[in-house]
């Protein structure tokens, strides 16, 4: 277990280094930072002085190392557009994205697992078949289209829910939350569904197929032969075994929710990190782009590690080498 | 009342398919008495498992009982459904499957699987159930039983797992055990131990056993009586000694000839030529006639030979040789 964890940690470290390299290279390939920092009226000595100060004459590896060193401390430099520290801008925007991701992940997990179990247990029922057919639509419609359809139906036609923004938020100093006000909560509904729908369908289909597979296993048959009641067979014996493989995929899906938030945030003008990134691309705001890239990759790597640990927690067979089993 | 724990009368199992109705179990009859071990033999596909599954109410759709009766301790059970049948399983009929590696739920401690079964069927407290679980493991020969309650299935070897499975099948003290090839998946070296264990436990408790196997050697050493199945029908039924030493049905004779038996010395092994007819192409009359060296016209015509209280379903049973002198 320890050796395995160390190996995974090492792999994660390598992944982050590579992403860092990509982020760092963006600075070099997308224009000369001197151009954007110094105006039209610059002298050769100005340029050289700045190059020296910024360390642009140092060897590549040294520059890369310095970049990583600053990144680890949360220093991604100044935004070209807003001339403020990138870390500060992202910290402002992060709560919006994280709250949105949290609610959509909860929505996707809850309904994905519940509907997956339902469609597996009632696999020949009318309702289960109807859900499966509708879910096909959920997988094949692009996110932005779902968002626009929801806006059309619930904002334009019915006027029940807002079509853009976060509603009223409460500022806690280090965090802004939409959970505390009615309009904040209402504003979360449509974007969360839009963002979570695809993941929900995926989780549902996965849970269903895993569960069907497990229900065919010998130990389920043996549990039935021992007279264990159906509820217990489904939810004690089958569900636990179903969740083992589901956890990985679900974990990765949650990671991708934050990445996919870009589209949803754009459709709903949600003031989160994704929208910040889209705007940064329009203005070639490299420091913001680089920081976003690195944050997303850290998130993926962290989720991966957590998923691995969950695996150990749930499946005793994987724990075997720790207990020195047989 | 008779002494029979299980009485099967004209039991028929059918599978509707596009090509017509298949009859994997076709009007079979037998009784198993208290404390008696009835061996069921026959080549692969003869319907042995199907008959066992019919008794415990675990036929896989679309197979279902379409005729005959099953009586357990004087109660008719073939028409029970759902909850009623479930309460019977484990409590009155136990089952042991072929593969101990897949029969146990990998994510549940074996102590939990045992107590779960007992709490389902017996009116005892959780503490009491745990004590009895330890006793049950001890009884099937698991060393340090009380400590092993918290072990997971993967921490046991195959033979030990089959012992756990037997403990599970017997823990609510059923009056009938159906053992479907309980040793086929095990090492030759542990097969004899498992069979001896099963035999001892059932003798001690007076449990009736339906022992399904390919292995005539196991039958000869374990069973009191034996039923020979061929293509879903009963070919021969009698005391093990009689059937083994003087088979009446030519198929049984062939089966004995192709099994090396210590008691018969090392005779040349014969093989029955040809193969069992498929259920989709059952011959008229006796199902065995295409392979039978004694077949006459009457064997190819309806009505097919039946057991009718005798030992074999054959128009020309092999005559008992003149009494051997030792
Ligand atoms: N769903 C099905 N459709 C068609 N035929 C089936 C189906 N299920 C089982 N059968 C047939 O039913 C027959 C009886 O099978 P069964 O499993 O009882 O045989 P068995 O005697 O236990 O054989 P084995 O020794 O291999 O376990 C077989 O010929 C099998 O092909
Ligand atoms: Mg079988």
UniProtKB/TrEMBL annotation, chain A:
Gene3D superfamilies named among the record's database cross-references: MetI-like (1.10.3720.10)
Pfam families: BPD_transp_1 (PF00528), BPD_transp_1_N (PF19300)
Domain of life from the UniProt record: Bacteria
Residue stretches spanning the membrane: 12-30, 100-121, 133-154, 174-198, 243-270, 290-314
Protein keywords: Cell membrane, Membrane, Transmembrane, Transmembrane helix, Transport
GO biological process annotation, one example: transmembrane transport
Ranges of residues in domain ABC transmembrane type-1: 94-311
GO cellular component: plasma membrane
Membrane topology qualifier: Multi-pass membrane protein
Statement: the UniProt record of this protein carries the keyword Membrane: yes
UniProt keyword Nucleotidyltransferase present: no
Subcellular location: Cell membrane
Annotated signal peptide: none
Family in the record: Belongs to the binding-protein-dependent transport system permease family.
Protein name: Glutathione transport system permease protein GsiC
Originating species: Nereida ignava
Origin organism lineage: Bacteria, Pseudomonadati, Pseudomonadota, Alphaproteobacteria, Rhodobacterales
Automatic annotation (TrEMBL), chain B:
Pfam families in the record: ABC_tran, oligo_HPY
SUPFAM superfamilies: P-loop containing nucleoside triphosphate hydrolases (SSF52540)
Protein transport keyword on record: no
Keywords linked to the UniProt accession: ATP-binding, Cell membrane, Membrane, Nucleotide-binding, Transport
Compartment list: Cell inner membrane
Annotated ABC transporter domain residues: 6-256
Predominant location: membrane
GO-annotated biological processes: peptide transport; transmembrane transport
Assigned protein family: Belongs to the ABC transporter superfamily.
Official protein name in the record: Stage 0 sporulation protein KD
